[in-house]
């Protein structure tokens, strides 16, 4: 997702048109002045991508009864996180353009993942090793996705930056990775190591702080979406560090649930944005009728997908827990690997120079 970009025109429509006329003329990929700097639009971005409601999720989990916490976790696991992982496989199956570009990779990677996961499960009789790999790979995936969406906002804002791209990338990713691995460390080996890392926690605060200062220094009217997203995502992970540092395991659990909700929600929202962009640009393959239908009805299609997959997941887990977990680990590994290809912006190939009438005539002669 790091490499996905969108070209945003500087001017949209005619100055003589009313705002509604400008919106109709602009179409889905040419933002009106009120939408510039946002991916879906201000309100949808705040709700689905920046997820500014995550403090409410933490509040309700921490102060509600056990039944209330279990309800939030139920919806998060089955109807948010699981569909977001499996949606990548749906994209690979329905969109033939990425598959045609690298068919050997998609087939070989799937075969390798399935063989590895099934082989480890059969040889050990447990999923412990696979779940450990999943946590580490998922940590990197979290960091990469959040940085990728932040970069989309950066390009949409057209704001300059004092930080080189690679510096910004590693500052944000390193901070997010540190927070996620710190959660695992507290759960596995609390004690003396936690005391030593509590000093590192203060150093980690400087990483997002440098990015925030850069955004504020170069702030413009189109940077509000980028600033909001940065504050929201770093605020969530700073909350994790605070809970670890001050010994609040219940709040930490609520924050980790909110982070999973945040991650899956933004992914599904950006997938919808990408499909709608492809549909309006005409870049969906002419034979991909199903993908075109889904792209033109994304909200309804996503809702149906989430309900079906979430319901099936809940029923399968109730009767075939280990096999369902194994399938989810396989889907997760494919999700992590395929995302790096699906979201990478392809370099446009130089089209062949057409022959002129004179050259065609001379060649035929």
From TrEMBL:
Coiled-coil zones: none
Highest taxon of the lineage: Bacteria
Stretches for region Disordered: 1-33, 346-365
Bias (Polar residues): 1-13
Transmembrane segments: 43-63, 106-133, 202-220, 227-244, 250-273, 294-316, 322-338
Entry keywords, A to Z: Membrane, Transmembrane, Transmembrane helix
Name of the protein in question: Uncharacterized protein
Species annotation: Blastopirellula marina
């Amino acid at each position: 997702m790091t490499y996905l970009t969108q070209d945003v025109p500087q001017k949209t429509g005619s100055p003589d048109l009313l705002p509604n006329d400008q919106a109709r003329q602009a179409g889905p990929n040419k933002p009106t002045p009120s939408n510039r700097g946002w991916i879906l639009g201000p309100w949808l971005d705040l709700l689905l991508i920046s997820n500014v409601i995550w403090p409410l999720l933490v509040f309700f989990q921490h102060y509600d009864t056990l039944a209330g916490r279990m309800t939030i976790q139920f919806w998060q696991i089955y109807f948010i996180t699981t569909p977001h992982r499996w949606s990548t496989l749906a994209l690979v199956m329905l969109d033939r353009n990425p598959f045609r570009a690298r068919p050997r990779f998609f087939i070989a990677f799937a075969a390798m993942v399935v063989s590895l996961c099934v082989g480890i499960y059969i040889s050990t009789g447990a999923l412990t090793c696979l779940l450990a790999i999943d946590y580490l790979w998922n940590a990197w995936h979290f960091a990469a996705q959040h940085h990728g969406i932040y970069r989309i906002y950066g390009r949409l804002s057209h704001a300059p930056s004092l930080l080189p791209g690679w510096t910004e990338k590693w500052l944000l990713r390193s901070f997010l990775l540190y927070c996620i691995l710190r959660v695992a460390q507290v759960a596995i080996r609390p004690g003396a190591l936690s005391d030593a890392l509590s000093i590192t926690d203060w150093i980690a605060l400087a990483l997002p702080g440098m990015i925030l200062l850069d955004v504020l220094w170069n702030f413009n009217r189109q940077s509000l979406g980028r600033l909001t997203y940065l504050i929201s995502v770093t605020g969530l992970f700073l909350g994790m560090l605070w809970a670890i540092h001050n010994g609040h395991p219940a709040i930490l659990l609520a924050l980790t649930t909110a982070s999973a909700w945040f991650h899956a929600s933004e992914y599904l929202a950006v997938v919808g944005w990408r499909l709608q962009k492809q549909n309006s640009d005409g870049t969906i393959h002419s034979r991909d009728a199903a993908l075109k239908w889904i792209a033109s009805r994304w909200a309804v299609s996503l809702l149906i997908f989430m309900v079906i997959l979430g319901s099936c997941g809940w029923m399968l887990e109730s009767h075939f827990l280990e096999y369902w977990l194994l399938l989810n680990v396989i889907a997760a590994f494919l999700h992590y690997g395929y995302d790096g290809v699906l979201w990478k912006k392809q370099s446009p190939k130089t089209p062949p120079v057409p022959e002129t009438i004179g050259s065609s005539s001379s060649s035929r002669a």
